[in-house]
Amino acid sequence: MRGAITWIFLVGIVGLPYWIVLIPLHDLLLGDELRRQLAHSPALWLTFGSLAAGHFWKGVPLGL
Fold first, then answer.
1. What is the 3-state secondary structure (H, E, C) of the chain?
2. Which of 2, 7, 22, 39 makes a 20 to 30 Å CA pair with 29?
């Protein structure tokens, strides 16, 4: 029961305002220009890859 209350709190109090702020940015975040830049930018791929690898590296000792 505590897990359900925690989930409702996190989604309702923390997550919902975050998504409300992102609504006006829908066209920018899902636009063709951003997809084109992501597809043709090695620096962005390196940045995203290093972030993912860093999270994985930190999670392995914690037991994922």
1. CHHHHHHHHHHHHHHHHHHHHHHHHHHHHCCHHHHHHHHCCHHHHHHHHHHHHHHHHHHHHHCC
2. 7
pLDDT (tens, 9 = 90+) of the chain, 64 residues, equals: 888 888 888 888 877 777 788 888 888 878 888 888 888 989 988 998 999 999 999 888 877 5
Q: What is the pTM of this model?
A: 0.44
Phi, psi of 57 (to 5 degrees): -60, -40
Residue type at position 40: H
> How do the domains of the chain map onto residue ranges?
1-30, 31-64
